[in-house]
Structure formats: structure tokens, C-alpha cells
Amino acid sequence: MTVTVADIRIYPLNDIPESDMSDNAIQGAIEQATAYISYIKRSDVTDSETESAIRALGGYLAYLAFLDRPIQDVAGTMADGYFIPATGTEGIPQIRSTSDARAKERALYETAKTFINMVSKGNMESGKLESQYIPFIGLSSSKT
Questions:
Q1: Is there a contact between 121 and 41 (Cβ–Cβ < 8 Å)?
Q2: Are 42 and 124 contacting, i.e. CB atoms less than 8 angstroms apart?
Q3: How far apart are CA 103 and CA 138, in angstroms?
Q4: What's the domain range around 120?
Q5: How many domains, in total, are found in the chain?
Q6: Residue 29 contacts residue 65 (beta carbons within 8 Å)
Q7: In a domain, 81, yes or no
Q8: Is residue 77 assigned to a domain?
Q9: What is the pTM of this model?
Q10: Among 144, 139, 140, 136, CA closest to 61
Q11: Is residue 88 in a domain?
Q12: Percent of all residues in the chain with a pLDDT value above 90, rounded to a whole number
């Protein structure tokens, strides 16, 4: 029972290039998710369910790290202390749509919540859901 960086890259980070999301960032998200799920899970939860919960939470945490990146990346080089923008289309800033990013974040958050509640000890007691401790960072009213 091990969730790997490749697992997270396949889903849910299938649209994020490796150049934008390092393996170390994903591995850190997996380790955080593994520690949290291991702490909250019930004894009757199967390895497959545990792995699914780790993948869901790890994907969400990794996506938060991706959203933390600067929205604009301008291609260019530094020469003698000056920034020289690249010529042609590669010099155009890469701007992500925040509404698309927030919609995906919301979907990953809802998936993580579902899996966390499925495996957690607190799920058996009404009103004590472990997913309440996983923050939703997105601004659902963001429009771009």
C-alpha cells in the first residue's frame, strides 16, 4: 500500500506539466496525506480504501502547492543584472484562468472530503467529521 508521485501525476494532476510541479512537492503532499489518513482511519478500513483516501488528499494538497505558484511566468534570461525578455510567442506571460483553477480545487476538495469521511473514526459519530480539519483555501467567488 503505497501511493507514489506517479500515481498523483496520473490523477488528479493530469493537466499539470512536470516543469510546473516538482516531484518533491508532490512527495511532500503524499507524506502529509499518509500521516493524516493513518492517524484518523478506522481499523476496518481496507488498504484499497486507505490508498484512495491518501491519493485524494495528497492530490488536493499538491494542487494547493501548484496554486501557490506565481500566476505569470515570463520567459527570458538575465544578462549583466538585466532581465531580457524572450522574443516571439515564448515571451508572452503564461496566465492561468483562476476560475478554472478554483473549480478544479473545489472538485479535489470535495473528493478529498468524501474519502476522508469514508475512512475516518469520527465518521461514525454524527457531527464529528475529520474532513472539517482540511481547509478549503479557494475563493469560490473568484472570476477571471
A1: yes
A2: yes
A3: 9
A4: 5-71+97-133
A5: 1
A6: yes
A7: no
A8: no
A9: 0.73
A10: 136
A11: no
A12: 30
- The answer to whether residue 117 sits within a structural domain is yes
Q: Which three cell numbers stand for residue 79?
A: 544578462
Counting residues of the chain whose pLDDT is more than 70, the rounded percentage is 73
94 in Cβ contact with 20 (< 8 Å): no
Q: Report the chain's mean pLDDT, rounded to a whole number.
A: 79
Q: What three-state secondary structure class fits 79?
A: strand
Amino acid at 54: I
Residue 127: phi and psi, rounded to 5, are: 85, 0
Which amino acid appears at position 135 of this protein?
P
Q: What is the pLDDT of residues 2-43, one digit of tens each?
A: 899 999 998 888 867 787 788 999 999 999 999 999 988 999
pLDDT, residue 28, reads 93
- Torsion sign across C-alpha atoms 42, 47, 49, 51: positive
- CA-based nearest residue to 68, from 36, 31, 37, 29: 29
Residue with cell 494547493: 64
